[in-house]
Design goal:
HEPPP_synth_su1; Heptaprenyl diphosphate synthase component 1; about 290 residues; mainly alpha
């Protein structure tokens, strides 16, 4: 099997000094791209470079969508630096999303353009559905996590028909669990950054478990940073996220226990970045 180098191939598209200096960027969807590469690489039909092309193009689309999701939509007039950051996110997201079409069209992969375009529509529909549920305050925290994981896996899952029949069950199982790992890792990052947003597990967990007074503060968006962190500690949100991550990693190990030695080694290594979250100081807001 040839080496995985999709992140290196993506660098020339995502690493621009202007963008990196003035705004934050989403994480590269490495685990999902690595999975797609690994399973496509097993198919003789995809060993003409498409085993790299498809994960690369899909990752760029994912980063485009994720970049647009990071745009600050606050109504108040932003500072010049925040305005620059907002503008760069809009442009960067459009650029990443446009690059996938160019790469696939140049390779003559019009069928891949079609399935990714359909997947983008599905992702946007899922986001709108979640947004409407949030507006109605109908979003249990576990449902939020599951919904975000579905959104994260949708683009990559669109290539399932091109995965070999013998590999398809393992592919779908691992993609589901690693999408959950990515979701939980992202939530831990939001937790550490003290993001007080409805687009976070912490918000819905606190809304579910908080007192009437605490829920009012959440809904009225009147919690300051210190009070927010106190509530995170009170309801052990960080510990809960880590427990959920531990459970997902356990399920991945269980799935791989029935796989051959090569798959256990290859896909088992993919859990290492998530395991490090348990030992990184400041990963989550925890007691002690």
């Amino acid at each position: 099997m040839k080496p995985y180098r999709v992140p290196q191939l993506a660098k020339k598209y995502v690493e621009y000094d202007m963008i990196l200096q003035h705004t934050d960027m989403p994480s590269f969807p490495d685990s999902r791209a690595r999975l797609l590469f690994a399973f496509l690489n097993r198919s003789d039909e995809q060993k003409d470079g498409r085993d790299e092309l498809y994960p690369l193009a899909t990752s760029l689309v994912q980063m485009g969508l994720d970049t647009h999701d990071m745009i600050d939509t606050a109504k108040e007039m932003p500072s010049p630096s925040k305005m620059r950051s907002r503008q760069l996110k809009v442009l960067a997201g459009d650029y990443f999303s446009g690059r996938f079409y160019q790469l696939l069209a140049q390779a003559g992969s019009i069928d891949a353009v079609s399935i990714l375009s359909k997947a983008i529509c599905d992702v946007n529909e899922s986001k709108m559905s979640m947004y409407h549920s949030m507006c109605k305050l109908l979003m249990p925290p576990q449902e939020y996590l599951n919904g975000m994981a579905v959104i994260k896996k949708r683009l990559f899952h669109s290539f399932t028909p091109w995965i070999g029949d013998s590999d398809r069950r393992l592919w779908e199982s691992l993609l589901q669990e690693f999408s959950l790992c990515d979701t939980l890792a992202e939530e831990l990052t939001r937790l550490e950054a003290a993001e007080r947003s409805r687009f976070s597990f912490a918000f819905w967990r606190l809304l579910e478990k908080g007192t009437a007074e605490e829920r009012d503060l959440l809904l009225n968006e009147t919690l300051d940073g210190k009070s927010w962190r106190q509530l995170l500690l009170k309801y052990k949100v960080g510990d809960l996220l880590l427990d959920k991550l531990d459970a997902v990693i356990g399920r991945i190990r269980e799935i791989l226990s029935e796989a051959d030695d090569r798959d256990r080694e290859e896909f088992g290594r993919m859990t290492e970045p998530f395991l490090r979250l348990f030992h990184t100081p400041g990963t989550a807001v925890r007691e002690g």
